[in-house]
Specification:
Elements (H helix, E strand, L loop, with lengths): L9 H15 L1 E5 L10 E5 L6 H7 L5 E6 L11 H4 L2 E4 L5 H15 L3 E3 L12 E2 L4 H9 L3 E7 L1 H4 L12 E6 L15 H19 L3 E2 L9 H9 L6 E5 L2 E4 L23 H5 L7
Parallel strand pairs: 1-8, 2-5, 2-7, 3-4, 3-5, 6-9
Antiparallel strand pairs: 7-8, 10-11
Helix pairs in contact: 4-5, 5-7
Length: 285
Amino acid sequence: MIPAGIGRLQGPVRRVLQPLVSRLWRFEIEGLENIPVTGPAVLCPNHAAFIDSVVVPAVLNRNLIYVGKAEYLDDWKTKHLFPALGMIPIDRRGGDHSRAALDAARQVLLGGGLFGIYPEGTRSRSGKLHKGRTGAARLAVETGAPLIPIGLLGTADIQPPDTFMPRFGLPVRIRFGKPIDSSRYRDRVGDHAVYRSLTDEVMYEIGQLTGLEYVHTYANAPLEPAAVEQAVEVTADVQHDSVTDGALVATASRPDANGVAVSSVLTSRPLSSLEDLLGEPVPVG
């Protein structure tokens, strides 16, 4: 069940937020019609700045529930505010500590709601698009909800890394991609190859929406030496630029005829923690 009170202030805050942000920044919005008027969807933006969690929900006309790390509730100023804005707190120790939050996320989608998650798991500090984690695809396949890729441009200029106050008056571009159907995989729940394939498809679409260079490493970890070695071995099979500073620069790709994305040939470390599955905080609505 969704915890009581989650998202109760979203509507009133959104009505205040929407006209405010339109005055603070110059918005260019495309594809908003791709967000369903009713029914579930998993929203998947690229992630460059904390301000992403403000600008995305500011242009929506529906409530958005998300998962954020429970540590945010340690501060008395956010303890009640963040859940009221739609954050389901999750204990990242995993196991029984976090199962309730994961169940709540599924209930949001099964109940026809919007759920937001950053597939990169954390903010990119490289200015590039990083390899996606499979949590969004996992939730989509388990619930039958479509995945909606979202391309964000300009937010890193508005709020550069390690800065608190955003810059005002700058442009921000939000491009909502067409929904990616996950229902075709409903009979393959638990198949990590499917989750990887769908995730690669989402990252490919985000790359098309943003034009950002794709780097086949997680945003918070360098590519492991073994993965670099394997990447070199499959050079003929993967369109890529170079291996530089321990990171393979590759082109995120659609799944092939067998439903496996070409870029997924490169090794990826298995999910070992809750952060691998869901990552850092997702859009506030």
